[in-house]
Design goal:
Length: about 170
Amino acid sequence: MSKVKDNAMNRARTFDNPIFYTVSAVAIQLAFLVCYLYFLSSHSKIVGISFTAINILVLLFLISKDDNPSYKLIWVVVILGIPMIGGILYVLFGNKRASRRLGMKIAEEHKQYLPTMMPNEEISRTITGCNRRAAGITTYLQEKCSFPAWSNTQSTITRLVKKCMRIC
C-alpha cells in the first residue's frame, strides 16, 4: 500500500515542478511548428521548393565540410528525416563554432608557442630515409596540426596497442 502511495506522491511532485510545464510547453510549440510547416509545404509549392532547396544546399555544404563523419551523419539523418525543417535546424544549431573570445585566446596561445613548433628539416630527412610511410604521417601532422617531429624522445606502447598490432 505504501508503494502505491509513494508512486502517487512522485507523480504529484512531477506535475508540481515548473520544469515539467516548461518542457511540455516547448514540446507542444515544436509540434505545432512542425505541423504548420508541413501544412505550408504541402499546400504551397513555393514553400515546399524552398525547403527542399535549403535542405539540398545544407546537405552539400555538410558533406563537403572537413568534419567528424559521425557528426555529419547525424545531421544528414536529421535533415532527411525532418525534410521541412531539418536544414533550418542545422543552420540554426548545427554549425558548431567556438565563440569569438575563445578563438582569440586560442590564437594568442598558438602565436606564443608557434616558434617552438617549427619543423626541423634534418629530422624530416632522417625519417624519410628510414621509413617513407612514417615520413608521410609526420608531414601530415606537421601541416594539419602544427606538430613537428622531434628526435631523442621516447614513447611507450601500451598493452592495448600491442594487442591491436598482433590482431592486424
